[in-house]
Amino acid sequence: MKAELRGNSQSIPLQDPNHLATTQSSTSGALTGCLSTLDGACIEKLLLHCASALETNNVTLAQQVMWVLNNVASFVGDPNQRLASYFLRALVSRASRVCPTPVNFNTATGGAAGGGPAFHRTLMSVTELAGYVDLIPWHRFGFCASNGTILKAIQGFPRIHILDFSITHCMQWPTLIDALAKGPEGPPMLRISVLSWRPKVPPLLNASIEEIGHRLTNFAKYRDVPFEFNIVEVGIPQESSSDILHYDLLLRQLNSSQLNLKVDEALVVNCQNWLRYLPDEPTCSSTSSNLISCRDSFLDMVKNLSPRIVTVVDEDCDLGAMTGLESRITSCFNYMWIPFDALETFLPKNSPQRIEYEADIGHKIENIIGFEGIQRIERLESFTKLSQRMGNKGFLSVPFCEETIKEVKTLLDEHASGWGMKKDEDNTLILTWKGHNSVYATAWVPHTVGKILSHELTTSDCLRRS
Q: Which parts of the sequence are annotated with region: Leucine repeat II (LRII) (predicted)?
């Protein structure tokens, strides 16, 4: 997305423009040229200059650029200013760890670097989480697309088992339960299994996974759907263990026995914003000396379970292990603008709901920009790279049926007119905002299962290798 498409912030007077006069080289001219028109493109340029200064341990220049950004950014300004606030805070956080000498950045001006919403926010209630998910179609899009293809894949099966790998606390499943209750032949037996562990990322809930299961059980009973909720206990390593070892331990525990799989069940594997948290650096696994990433190991595990369908939903941005800081800033700034701009269309600038939603995005930005190595857990992968990965691991893509596409369009009609959807040639549905990709939804089957499904879903060319 071109930075200039984000619109312009109003010109903001700085307290001391001569502060940049001591900067040598062409960087001084580049920064000074930004002072009169601080639009999205110029803010991005300032962020990149600051990142470059930090990477070369040029503390003086980094402080100067941060000073400029601190006068530009505002947690209650327009979308560009609000976004800049979180990027500035992420850069200050990074500077506190990577600079050889302390960064004496004065935040007494009350600017974005030292103020704003706290990342350690109050936990949500289940009711608040429902409102959070409904605010924009960021999550509901993936729920709707995935549920539609799941319903198509499990038709005729009396018993269904869903392995749910997600971060949204089972908010996807009431709609599916309701749809199963309306089936002409009566509902099948539904079993949902979730892990006892999830990444410590927003949204955060004040209810335990046991309470969530109890709520789902009561709702299924109300809808007369036979239901079972299972929590798969996974061992938690010592605090001193690295994240890589944590995920390796997690993967070793995900097997048919631990998951209590049954031969008479149609197995569904649902991944909503999950794969990004699996490390993608090649490393030696516990069972092999070959180099393989946890992400690929997870997909191997899923394939070996022979699921009826696999759904993968995530944000369409490249922020993987091999991306450098400046590349991440460019990709992240142009991508994270989307929810900030979408919220601007219907919520006032001082809306607590908006501020909290943006603070959760800020939590993600700080991890993407402020951390490296195993501490950087936000590692998004675009749908193009995801498709390549799935194809390389022996999966076939499954198209979304017209009924599912129609339901997704109906969902989007309930939101601002800027939201849209497009269907990619690789059988991918993509949520867009003002034409720019935001979230993708995909469906997959292992190659062996695909041979069977190819005779059951729509036409014979429904499945094709990614």
A: 211-243
Distance CA 118, CA 364 (A): 13
Residues 6+ apart with CB under 8 A from 425: none
The runs of H, that is alpha helices, within 73-139 are 79-98, 126-134
* The pLDDT value given to residue 32: 56
pLDDT digits (tens, 9 = 90+) for 208-219: 999 999 999 999
Note the pTM of the prediction, 2 decimals.
Answer: 0.88
* Of 303, 301, 278, 281, residue with least CA distance to 292: 281
- The count of other CB atoms within 10 Å of the CB of residue 188 is 19
Spell out the domains of the chain, with CATH numbers in brackets.
Answer: 3-116+324-374 (no CATH), 126-316+380-459 (3.40.50.150)
In this predicted structure, what is the pLDDT of residue 102? 54
Sign of CA dihedral 147, 208, 244, 191: negative
Residue with tokens 């070996």: 304
CB-based contact 20:31 (threshold 8 Å) = yes
CA distance 309 to 438: 23
Q: Give the contacts of 209 (CB within 8 A, at least 6 positions apart).
A: 169, 194, 196, 231
Helix or strand or coil: residue 322?
coil
Q: Which of 459, 466, 392, 453 is nearest to 427 (CA)?
A: 466
How confident is the prediction for the chain on average, in pLDDT? 84
Q: Decide if pLDDT at 89 tops 70.
A: yes
Q: Identity (one letter) of the amino acid at 71?
A: N
162 three-state secondary structure = strand
For residue 167, the one-letter residue type is I
Residue 240: what pLDDT? 42
If we measure between CA atoms, which residue out of 464, 445, 125, 429 comes closest to residue 306? 445
Which residue in this structure is represented by tokens 């631990």? 258
- Dump pLDDT digits (tens) for 307-353: 999 999 999 999 987 778 999 999 999 999 999 999 999 999 999 99
DSSP summary character for residue 279 = -
Residue 196 has pLDDT above 80, yes or no: yes
What lies within 8 Å, CB to CB, of 57 at 6+ separation is 99, 100
